[in-house]
C-alpha cells in the first residue's frame, strides 16, 4: 500500500518533528521537480550558463565559467564547435542507435565523460565523490582532479572506475 502524498502543512510539521523519512521524500521530490524543470529548459550546455550565473555566488561562477589566462583555448574550442554543422535527420528510426564505445578495455555508454574539476567540493558536499558516482551510474568516464579535496581512496571506493 502506498502512502498518500503529504500536503505542504503536513510536510512542514513532519520536518519540524524530525521525521527523516518524510524529509528524505520531500528532498527527493524537490530534486525530481528541479530535474523536470531543467529538462524542459536546458537544451544545450550553453543554456546552463545564465542559470549558473543567476544561482551561483560570483566567485564560484567565475571559477567554473572561466578558463586559463586569456581564455584563448576556450575561444578556440567554442569556435571549433561553431564550425561544425549538424544536420538533423527526422523520421529516422533511432531504436538501434548505439553511442557506446570501448576504451582501454572498458565499455562506456557515450563518447564523452566528466573532465577533472579542481576543488569541486566548493559546489557540492564531497563533490568529487558525487561527480564520480554520477559518471559511474551514467557509464561514462570520469577523471578526478589532482586538486581534489577528497582522498583518492575515498573516490575510488565510491566509484572504482574513476581515472586519476
Question: How would you describe the overall organization of this protein?
Answer:
The chain has 164 residues and is mainly alpha-helical. The chain has a domain at 97-164. 48% of the residues lie in helices and 4% in strands. The protein contains seven helices and two strands. It has helices at residues 8-17, 20-41, 48-55, 58-65, 72-82, 127-138, 152-158; strands at 101-103, 106-108. It has a two-stranded antiparallel sheet. The termini are far apart.
- Main pleated sheet: 2 strands, antiparallel
Beta-strand content estimate: under 5%
The number of helical elements comes to: 7
Say how many strands there are: 2
Return the average pLDDT rounded to an integer. 82
First and last CA, distance = 46 Å
- The run of helices and strands is HHHHHEEHH
| SS content category | mainly alpha
Helices and strands, with pairings:
Blueprint: H1 8-17, H2 20-41, H3 48-55, H4 58-65, H5 72-82, E1 101-103, E2 106-108, H6 127-138, H7 152-158
Antiparallel strand pairs: 1-2
Helix pairs in contact: 6-7
Summarize the structure in short:
Helix content is 48%, strand content 4%. It is built from seven helices and two strands.
Descriptors:
164 residues; two-stranded antiparallel sheet; globular
